[in-house]
Specification:
9-stranded antiparallel sheet, 349 residues, globular, 5-stranded antiparallel sheet, Beta-galactosidase, Chain A, domain 5, single chain, mainly beta
Length: 349
Amino acid sequence: MSVNTESFGCSRDGREIKLYTITGKNGLSACVTNLGAILVKLMVPDAEGKAEDVVLGFDKAEDYYGNPSFFGATIGPNANRIGNAEYEIDGVHYELDINDNDRNNLHSHIDNGYHKRMWDADVTSDNSVTFSIEDPATLGFPGNKKLSVTYTVTDEGELKLHYVGSSDENTILNPTNHSYFNLDGFKAGSIVDEFIQIEADEFTPTDDESIPSGVIASVKGTPMDLTSKVRIGDHIDDDYEQLNFAGGYDHNFCVRGYDGTLRKVATVWAAKSSRIMEVYSDLPGVQFYAGNFIKEGQIGKEGAVFNKRYGLCLETQYYPDAIHHSNFQSPVFGPDRKLDSVTVYAFKN
């Protein structure tokens, strides 16, 4: 196990951006950067020991300042959407940046969210790097907030993400990782031939702007039923209202048996190679996004061209717009409640 550090560019305010490569014993390695606490590269071996980089992204740090698809990013303070870009906590009204459908908020702030901020970095062991950020009451989120995410490559072929957050006032803290996976490699094209299984009997339907209604609905008898292994492309274009609204899968699934402990939430099988990815989380939801709105013709690593559905996301989270729905688990943290959450991407072949 080892961590190698190298220069990765220069931030907008003149600071050095660094790239940290965490190498495990079994061929798994992860490259992460202190710009946005972004996962830049993830090398995963197949059954023959051939390793491929399975996440979409860019060769240069500067390109992540554009990054309209949020490749690899740590999203914060709040991931996903908040309806009408406003909410209340403790009787106080807060307004957020309107950046989605001319009235909602998506991923906190497109230009000033945590995914484009410089984080402090600490190589905490020979197989992990911790990124941390301090954030005052900005962007419409109250409190002096502290958040860290530790990336660890384990001996068992896992990439583990450990989030720890706090605030001196009640505020929303709902970070996630927005990596796009293609288990045959980032150059492999569409993910519609990959197979997926999600451990969720229910999901949160949305309106045509992807804002949940507050209803928790059964997946049974619908294209949202991914409780058994299914090819992603089999139903992604079905004439079904929820899929029509989102251009395919881009929905929050309610993790079966959620009790705050770590449990399997999803499994993905590569289309052509032997790679399998299992996702574990202690959070109540996971957003399965099939890359329906990846910017067409976007140039990525090694000149690869990324198009619609060239990668998939499994974003562990509190439910979207949870601040407006008392029947959703609360994303509010403060002096009396600290954030401490783990997500694991486990690879097999």
